[in-house]
Amino acid sequence: MSLLKQQIDGIEFFLKSAIRHKFQNYKPEPATMPFHTRLLGKDRLALYSFIHSLNTNFGTSIFEPVALLLAKNKFKRAESQAIAGDRISANAQIAIQKIIDDLTTARLLPNKIKEIEIIRKVARQGEFRKIKPTKVDVLLENSSGELFLFDIKTAKPNAGGFKEFKRTLLEWTATILVEKPKAKVQTIIAIPYNPYDPQPYNRWTI
Q: Shortest CA distance to 47 belongs to which of 23, 81, 68, 71?
């Protein structure tokens, strides 16, 4: 996908502004690290602390806004930190738990299309419950109304978190289908770059 000059200029301006703002407002957390200080020196430790802080905040301060800048010319709706919904049916919760249990015990292989249809059938059945699902890092809607919900993760996510990542994606689907039972929904784990380049990404701990 080639970028428009306007997009390139916008991203360049944003990145410069974000890093400048970080420099101007960075306040290191007080921490005594006598071994590290003596081994590396105060200046190197301060630089490491700053880079680590910048890296930690890349998701919300860099990746999300850049994703929106890239998406706005192609999608009719582009939001960050969006709320998928706040209601879920009791039957959908049961279905989600069964999907996760079956995947965990390898009774079923992952099948995104089938999982969405299982949830769609029960999304409006049973008692409705108020929930507060994880916010959607980036939510996009195209001209035909199809929804894309992205959960942006670090380049090397831990294996232990993937069960909860999966639950989040399924809950987003269920809350969307409460309000829009016929909606086309795509929920996606987004890994912003390949740390193994030029080799293929090989951290498929999921």
A: 23
